[in-house]
């Protein structure tokens, strides 16, 4: 058999060593040793070969805008929202599109090949929606971009948000979004969850709500989301993002809530980089972490992914499109330190996030899209520890990024001439 690309000798996340044969943009074979012709051979001996990274929670309309028109002085979520409000009238179609395309280049270099991005629909021009719909088309051959219609200023709190959100869905935006904790009252927030889930059910779409992104233990919109998901038959198609208030909720209440989320098959997307930065800001000491209860949800069989949320925007002043940074921070804040848990964190930023996005052609398996990443690491735990270099990235059957190994040359008498920090025993 002849292949377009043959990836030789890589170690898969489950520990198997295998060759991967690619033709026509698909994975045609995964076997211990594949003999055959190939247009291009990638030597992955000793390196980890994984399905690509997936980010299920991002804001691509705001990314790379850090400092425009000013930086977030307090670092608070609410100042970030206010700052985004100052930036919005200054946005141009060209600038949003060009920053988004720049970010997609970063993503490719990091092996991040599927992204769910929220796009603000509180703008009568729907400028960012138009720009990101164009970006989605332009990157389709190498990135799966999924758009969420996101009424940032509140579905009811902003006078035209609801009609603009519907318009955005009519224009082809994929997923229904919302922000119940930002509505004027708890009751309005609850009503918005019902409304948005009904819109999703009527249109046969997925729904992904920013849910309870606060330290207020009484912010319980996730409960309503679980209820509506069940009532409307949206099981497996609904997600609650952030859910930070769960950190502060009463333990008895959580013992009732988690089985409801599991029963409704609602996915949860914590965003550890952003929430460890934003939450607990009204506390003195002890200061809450504001991370939702990840290990507890995993124990209940709830699907939990890790999202990135922001890179260089009004809410977050750092970020590099690296889902291993996200897994690394999540692992620490959630104290997921056992070998199984650390491997699980790698799985969350790959396979689990892909399941949340409903990506049917994703995965290292015969017949799936030939998208993969070769990492300078021996296994998933080492990849997280090193935030390993992406040596080669293949997207839908084409090599889209490459870099050399970066071992450091040492000049110390009596010591080796070079060092890299891999440690095969891990
Ligand atoms: Zn967000």
Automatic annotation (TrEMBL):
Any one Gene Ontology molecular-function term assigned to this protein's record: isoguanine deaminase activity
Entry annotated with the keyword RNA-binding: no
Residue ranges annotated for the Amidohydrolase domain, each copy included: 40-401
Statement: the UniProt record of this protein carries the keyword Methyltransferase: no
Pfam families membership: Amidohydro_3
Entry's Gene Ontology BP terms: cytosine catabolic process
Alphabetical UniProt keywords: Hydrolase, Metal-binding
Transmembrane intervals: none
Protein name: Amidohydrolase family protein
Species of the source: Oryzicola mucosus
């Amino acid at each position: 058999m002849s292949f377009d690309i043959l990836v030789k000798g890589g170690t898969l996340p489950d520990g198997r060593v295998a060759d991967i044969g690619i033709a026509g943009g698909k994975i045609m074979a995964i076997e211990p040793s594949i003999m055959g012709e190939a247009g291009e051979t990638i030597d992955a001996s000793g390196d980890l070969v994984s399905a690509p990274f997936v980010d299920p929670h991002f804001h691509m309309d705001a990314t790379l805008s850090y400092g425009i028109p000013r930086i977030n002085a307090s670092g608070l979520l609410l100042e970030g929202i206010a700052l985004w409000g100052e930036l919005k009238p200054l946005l141009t179609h060209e600038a949003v599109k060009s920053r988004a395309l720049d970010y997609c280049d970063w993503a490719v270099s990091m092996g991040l090949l599927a992204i769910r991005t929220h796009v603000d629909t509180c703008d009568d021009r729907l400028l960012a929606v138009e720009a990101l719909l164009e970006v989605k088309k332009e990157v389709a051959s190498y990135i799966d971009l999924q758009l969420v219609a996101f009424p940032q200023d509140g579905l009811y709190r902003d006078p035209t948000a609801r009609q603009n959100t519907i318009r955005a869905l009519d224009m082809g935006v994929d997923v229904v979004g919302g922000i119940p904790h930002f509505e004027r009252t708890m009751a309005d927030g609850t009503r918005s969850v019902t409304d948005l889930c009904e819109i999703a059910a009527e249109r046969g779409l997925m729904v992904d709500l920013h849910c309870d992104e606060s330290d207020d233990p009484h912010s319980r919109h996730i409960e309503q989301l679980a209820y509506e998901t069940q009532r409307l038959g949206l099981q497996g198609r609904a997600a609650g993002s952030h859910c930070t208030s769960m950190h502060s909720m009463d333990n008895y209440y959580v013992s009732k809530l988690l089985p409801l989320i599991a029963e409704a098959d609602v996915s949860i997307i914590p965003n550890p980089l952003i929430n460890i930065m934003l939450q607990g800001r009204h506390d003195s000491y002890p200061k809450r972490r504001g991370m939702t209860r990840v290990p507890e949800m995993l124990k209940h069989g709830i699907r939990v992914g890790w999202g990135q949320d922001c890179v260089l925007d009004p809410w977050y002043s750092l970020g590099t499109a690296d889902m291993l940074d996200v897994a690394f921070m999540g692992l620490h804040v959630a104290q997921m330190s056992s070998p199984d848990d650390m491997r699980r964190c790698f799985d969350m930023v790959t396979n689990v996030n892909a399941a949340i996005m409903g990506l049917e052609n994703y995965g290292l398996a015969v017949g799936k899209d030939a998208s993969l990443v070769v990492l300078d690491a021996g296994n998933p735990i080492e990849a997280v520890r090193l935030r390993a270099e992406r040596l080669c990235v293949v997207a839908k059957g084409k090599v889209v990024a490459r870099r050399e190994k970066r071992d450091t040359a040492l000049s110390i008498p009596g010591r080796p001439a070079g060092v890299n920090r891999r440690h095969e025993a891990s």
